Structure formats: C-alpha cells, structure tokens
C-alpha cells in the first residue's frame, strides 16, 4: 500500500470527508511522526508498532568494484518494532511470539 492508497481508503471509509482533507490528515500524521523521530523521540502506536532511531557508528568499508578501503560515516536509521496486536494478526495461533530466556538457543 502506498500513501495515495491509504488516503483513498480513508476517504472511502469516511464519505463525509473530501479526499483532499484525508490527504491532509495522512500528511499531518506522517509529518508529526517524522518530526518526532528527527528530534530523537520514540514514537509508539499501541498495537501497531514502535519507531526508534538507531545510530550506526562509522566504519571502514570496501568499494566492491575496486576493493579500495572507504570510510563510511556515522548515520542514523529508523528501527521498526511491530506491536503485540500486529504480531498476533500476522502469526495467528502463535501463543508466545517473543522468546523467553529458556526458549533461546544455548551457546556451545
């Protein structure tokens, strides 16, 4: 699904709203999420997901064509963690979707 699909479906489910108003709503929500992440805040939408920023440290990489060493600068990435309701919908019948300490494989 792309943003225009989301806008269209929102307008279909709310016939009292114009499609351009639905587009403004979607843009406002996504914009606020991006603003919060840019500020370094955690965004949690209960049952759906949590978004956080992870900092990837700088490292030394290689150019795959030449094999030459390249410095890769530090950068930030968005980490997405699905909420409990989403995990349950994607894995129906799964009792405990998060492994506990006794379910994790042991190191040999």
Structure notes:
The protein has two domains: 1-41; 42-90, HU Protein, Chain A. The protein contains three helices and five strands. It has helices at residues 3-13, 19-38, 84-90, and strands spanning 43-45, 49-56, 59-62, 69-72, 75-82. The strands form two sheets. It has a three-stranded antiparallel β-sheet with strand order 1-2-5. Strand 1 (43-45) and strand 2 form a beta hairpin. Helix 1 crosses helix 2 (19-38). It is elongated, with a radius of gyration of 20 Å. The termini are far apart.
Key attributes of the depicted protein:
2 domains; 108 residues; three-stranded antiparallel β-sheet; alpha+beta; HU Protein, Chain A; elongated
The CATH level-2 architecture of the largest domain is identified as Irregular
Strand content: 25-35%
Query: What share of the residues lie within helices?
Result: 25-40%
Largest sheet: 3 strands, antiparallel
* Tally of helical runs: 3
Domain count, please report it.
2
What is the structural class? alpha+beta
Count of beta strands: 5
The coarse silhouette is elongated
Unreliable stretches covering 5 or more consecutive residues: none
CATH superfamily of the largest domain: IHF-like DNA-binding proteins
* CATH class (first level) name of the largest domain: Few Secondary Structures
Topology readout:
Blueprint: H1 3-13, H2 19-38, E1 43-45, E2 49-56, E3 59-62, E4 69-72, E5 75-82, H3 84-90
Helix pairs in contact: 1-2
């Amino acid at each position: 699904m792309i943003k225009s699909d989301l806008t269209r479906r929102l307008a279909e489910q709310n016939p009292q709203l114009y499609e351009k108003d639905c587009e403004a709503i979607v843009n406002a929500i996504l914009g606020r999420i991006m603003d919060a992440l840019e500020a370094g805040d955690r965004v949690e939408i209960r049952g759906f997901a949590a978004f956080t920023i992870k900092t990837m440290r700088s490292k030394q990489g290689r150019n795959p064509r030449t094999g030459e060493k390249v410095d890769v600068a530090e950068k930030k990435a968005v980490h997405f963690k699905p909420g409990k309701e989403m995990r349950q919908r994607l894995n129906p019948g799964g009792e405990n979707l998060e492994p506990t300490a006794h379910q994790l494989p042991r190191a040999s």
